[in-house]
Amino acid sequence: MPECITSRENGKIKYACRLAASAGARRAEGAFLAEGYKLCRDLAQHCPPRMLFYTEAALQKHPQLAGMPCPQYLVAEHVAQKLADTQAGQGVFAVLEMPRPPAGLLRPGGRYLALERVQDPGNLGALLRSAAAFGYTAALLSPGCADPFAPKTLRAGMGAAGVIPALPTEDLPAALAALAAQGVACLAAALQGSRPLDELAGPWPGGLCIVIGSEGQGLSQKAIAACTASVRIPMAGGIESLNAGVAGGVLLWHFRAGGQQAARG
Amino acid sequence: MPECITSRENGKIKYACRLAASAGARRAEGAFLAEGYKLCRDLAQHCPPRMLFYTEAALQKHPQLAGMPCPQYLVAEHVAQKLADTQAGQGVFAVLEMPRPPAGLLRPGGRYLALERVQDPGNLGALLRSAAAFGYTAALLSPGCADPFAPKTLRAGMGAAGVIPALPTEDLPAALAALAAQGVACLAAALQGSRPLDELAGPWPGGLCIVIGSEGQGLSQKAIAACTASVRIPMAGGIESLNAGVAGGVLLWHFRAGGQQAARG
To answer: What is the mean pLDDT of residues A136-162?
Structure first.
């Protein structure tokens, strides 16, 4: 039987809570806390688990937990409640190592998603999930984006954080200019001077980077200026905008590797 | 100056709250309550307004409100709080007539979205918004879907409820079979026996209906059986699913009228 933790003041519990609460603690430790059986299981395929916490009820429901290759701790219900980010917690928590992005990720021919000040963790998670699902190489995050390893982002991303490297950049326009100098076409999701996405012809042998801003503010002028072109999703019926996650999903799908159609415009 | 309402027990306020709270009241009255300046303004282009409520602060911010062609009422802040669905209300509310779907909507050559038990009003609103943005003809809703005129759905749909007719159906599989009998291809978003969407070749001269189930449960066997084919969004990297709104948006974009590419499979 694994060691049992019955105190909310236990050092390991406090450590896990710090990882959940603070991006700085996550950076310093190179680790993060995930919650929920499915999410922990999926992330553990890419991020080595360091510690696993579960309630007795959760272990009965998911006996496979006992096989996870890391130290395990049985926690009392009131301890699980302290670890949980949501009311309806599932009683499963893992401390996992942040994946280390491989070198040479930013290269000609890749598919990238660049995000500027996407503050909402739900939107960030949904965008990372779409980019991972459509085979993108990596995501670039400007300062002011939500943290990809915050509990809410992890939940919305459903494991995407383990699949697609999310690289923080100090200066997104400079990073876009560097990509463009390598021959990667950077497409800004912006109305100003834009073309409908189905008029932008592929294929893009040099690679592509889709650049998306926050739902409220859109992209900065600097980011737009660093891009190769601006692109919009054509809309009918007086609808002015789409849900941010939906708009990003449509762009990422449309410009996925191998998915380019000939221009129709 | 418009009449001023200072009591939360005022008959018109109670009427408006009933419309916000009850799908039955909306059906009986053929009217619904919308909240927020932009949403009320956009909806009023398609749904005749019957009554407008606003606070003095809201009128100062949006003096155009005074020009809306219906009876207007100034409401005290505490009355506005009773009408508001969210904490951060904007102090603008309109009772609007439900749009009456034109006859002959379901016809060969149209583009349709059919939803089965999409209970979450946020998901329903996002799906209607995508369908309206991509020029779909109408939406069909099975029993158990959220109400398209509930406050949360209206907010997520951002005016889509005024643009795209949402038709309740008592028996969705039967409605799909009737569409299919008219030559409309019905595509079920389901894994079972499915083909990747970019292998399904257009054009679809007989029209198309995209059929989507709830995020948790997916489509019923009956709905799948009534469809022409099943379609999936191909995914990479071990990602098993997309956010429901994102998946619907990608399908609706891919199969929009005029948007079909040749099969690549």
So the answer is: 94
Q: Mean pLDDT across the stretch A97-114?
A: 91
DSSP string, A132-194: HHTT--EEEE-TTSPPTTSHHHHHHHTTHHHHS-EEE-S-HHHHHHHHHHTTPEEEEE-STT-
User: Which residues of B are less than 8 Å from A164 in CB distance?
Assistant: 237
Q: Which chain A residues are closer than 8 Å to B240 by Cβ?
A: 158
CB of A23 closer than 8 Å to CB of A147: yes
Determine the Cα–Cα distance for residues A178 and B103; give it in Å rounded to an integer.
Answer: 56
The whole-number pLDDT of residue A56 equals 95
Per the model's pLDDT, the better-predicted residue between A168 and B88 turns out to be A168
Q: Nearest Cβ partner of A129 from B243, B250, B253?
A: B243
User: Residue B135 and residue A247: Cβ atoms within 8 Å?
Assistant: no
Total residues belonging to chain A: 265
At residue B219 the predicted structure's pLDDT band, cuts being 50, 70 and 90, is: very high
> How far apart are the C-alpha atoms of B91 and B37, rounded to whole Å?
8
**Tens digits of residue pLDDT in B61-99:** 999 999 999 999 999 999 999 999 776 678 999 999 999
Q: How far apart are CA A153 and CA A136, in angstroms?
A: 18
d(CA A205, CA A64): 44
Which amino acid is it at B199? Answer: E
Of B148, B153, B155, B151, give the one whose Cα is nearest residue B169: B148
